[in-house]
């Protein structure tokens, strides 16, 4: 039996072609993808295409678009065996992370991919990314999906979506998962490392929780930063601080006073690391103890993208009993070690 995969095209470089009169890139009609890539007709799965009415640059993708994708998957969940989302590369990790929190009890593959060069270029990476993503999106054993989570496939590697970050704007190998091993790798054989795959609670039936709050600010700490600017921050529910190393910040009475004032205003403070690899460890150095004293929340080894979307999903979400701090510290879908 041929598996059915729903391909959702949101926009991005993968769906572009060059206008040879102007030299500019423009979106082509993705409904004609089978003409651009006749190889897709040779796949061992049936592919059905649903393009966004207006293709979006990934910089225009946000909470409303995440909800559209999540609900479209829900609407078609019973009809299809897997889902492939074509997406621009710049914010793909944000979308993958957000969907991992919104799609509860997922038992089918949801794969995101894109490309660094348009599908019509001679040297494009688009075709390999697209074709292999379709294999992963339709991979079943004993009538059960092998992948039951949101993942990104890019340049021969399958990665957990909420563990990824885009680290190169130049190379085809654009994505990394520094704090979690790869889920699979394609070469002569299509390999899956099963012990690395996420397995959802079988008691949870698939559903969408589309709660997203935008009442959040992300701030990167830097040497010599003027903390007086913090007082100009409007009241918000969550402040995510990206700090040095394993959780340090400049030690001064001013730092303590400013952060404590933010906490006293009812703002939760989440701490993530500026390092690509590793994570937060309060107490490792004296200059991290300030966060324990003010009741900040450790982002552990989460990526910034995952921490941001997780916080957006949890703020004021009635479906999570307990405090924000308790829920943020929990491993919801493989986003923290």
UniProtKB/TrEMBL annotation:
<dbReference type="InterPro" id="IPR027475">
    <property type="entry name" value="Asparaginase/glutaminase_AS2"/>
</dbReference>
<dbReference type="InterPro" id="IPR041725">
    <property type="entry name" value="L-asparaginase_I"/>
</dbReference>
<dbReference type="InterPro" id="IPR040919">
    <property type="entry name" value="Asparaginase_C"/>
</dbReference>
<feature type="active site">
    <location>
        <position position="13"/>
    </location>
</feature>
<dbReference type="InterPro" id="IPR037152">
    <property type="entry name" value="L-asparaginase_N_sf"/>
</dbReference>
<dbReference type="InterPro" id="IPR006033">
    <property type="entry name" value="AsnA_fam"/>
</dbReference>
<feature type="binding site">
    <location>
        <position position="58"/>
    </location>
    <ligand>
        <name>substrate</name>
    </ligand>
</feature>
<dbReference type="InterPro" id="IPR036152">
    <property type="entry name" value="Asp/glu_Ase-like_sf"/>
</dbReference>
<dbReference type="InterPro" id="IPR020827">
    <property type="entry name" value="Asparaginase/glutaminase_AS1"/>
</dbReference>
<dbReference type="InterPro" id="IPR027473">
    <property type="entry name" value="L-asparaginase_C"/>
</dbReference>
<feature type="domain" description="L-asparaginase N-terminal">
    <location>
        <begin position="4"/>
        <end position="195"/>
    </location>
</feature>
<dbReference type="Pfam" id="PF17763">
    <property type="entry name" value="Asparaginase_C"/>
</dbReference>
<feature type="binding site">
    <location>
        <begin position="89"/>
        <end position="90"/>
    </location>
    <ligand>
        <name>substrate</name>
    </ligand>
</feature>
<dbReference type="InterPro" id="IPR006034">
    <property type="entry name" value="Asparaginase/glutaminase-like"/>
</dbReference>
<dbReference type="GO" id="GO:0006520">
    <property type="term" value="P:amino acid metabolic process"/>
</dbReference>
<dbReference type="GO" id="GO:0004067">
    <property type="term" value="F:asparaginase activity"/>
</dbReference>
<feature type="active site">
    <location>
        <position position="89"/>
    </location>
</feature>
<protein>
    <recommendedName>
        <fullName>asparaginase</fullName>
        <ecNumber>3.5.1.1</ecNumber>
    </recommendedName>
</protein>
<keyword id="KW-0378">Hydrolase</keyword>
<comment type="similarity">
    <text>Belongs to the asparaginase 1 family.</text>
</comment>
<feature type="active site" description="O-isoaspartyl threonine intermediate">
    <location>
        <position position="13"/>
    </location>
</feature>
<dbReference type="Pfam" id="PF00710">
    <property type="entry name" value="Asparaginase"/>
</dbReference>
<feature type="domain" description="Asparaginase/glutaminase C-terminal">
    <location>
        <begin position="220"/>
        <end position="321"/>
    </location>
</feature>
<dbReference type="InterPro" id="IPR027474">
    <property type="entry name" value="L-asparaginase_N"/>
</dbReference>
């Amino acid at each position: 039996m041929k598996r059915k995969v729903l391909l959702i095209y949101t926009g991005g470089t993968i769906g572009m072609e060059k206008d040879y009169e102007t030299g500019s890139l423009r979106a082509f009609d993705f409904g004609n993808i089978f003409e651009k890539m006749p190889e897709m007709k040779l796949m061992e799965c049936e592919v059905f295409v649903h393009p966004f009415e207006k293709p979006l640059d990934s910089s225009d993708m946000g909470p409303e678009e995440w909800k559209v994708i999540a609900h479209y998957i829900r609407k078609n969940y019973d009809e299809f065996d897997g889902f492939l989302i074509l997406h621009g590369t710049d914010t793909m990790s944000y979308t993958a992370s957000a969907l991992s929190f919104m799609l509860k009890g997922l038992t089918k593959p949801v794969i995101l991919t894109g490309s660094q060069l348009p599908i019509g270029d001679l040297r494009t990476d688009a075709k390999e990314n697209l074709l292999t993503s379709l294999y992963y999106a339709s991979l079943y054993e004993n009538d059960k999906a092998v992948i039951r989570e949101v993942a990104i496939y890019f340049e021969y590697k399958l990665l957990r979506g909420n563990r990824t970050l885009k680290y190169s704007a130049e190379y085809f190998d654009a994505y990394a998962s520094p704090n979690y091993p790869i889920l699979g790798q394609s070469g002569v054989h299509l390999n899956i490392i099963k012990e690395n795959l996420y397995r959802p609670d079988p008691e949870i039936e698939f559903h969408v929780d589309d709660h997203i709050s935008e009442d959040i600010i992300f701030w990167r700490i830097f040497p010599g930063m003027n903390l007086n600017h913090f007082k100009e921050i409007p009241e918000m529910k969550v402040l995510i601080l990206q700090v040095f190393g394993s959780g340090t910040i400049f030690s001064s009475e001013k730092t303590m006073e400013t952060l404590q004032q933010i906490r006293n205003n009812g703002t939760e403070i989440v701490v993530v690391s500026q390092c690509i690899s590793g994570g937060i460890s309060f107490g490792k150095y004296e200059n991290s103890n300030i966060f324990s004293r003010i009741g900040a929340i450790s982002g552990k080894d989460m990526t910034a993208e995952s921490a941001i979307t997780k916080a957006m999903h949890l703020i004021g979400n009635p479906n999570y009993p307990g405090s924000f701090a308790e829920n943020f510290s929990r491993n919801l879908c493989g986003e923290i070690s």
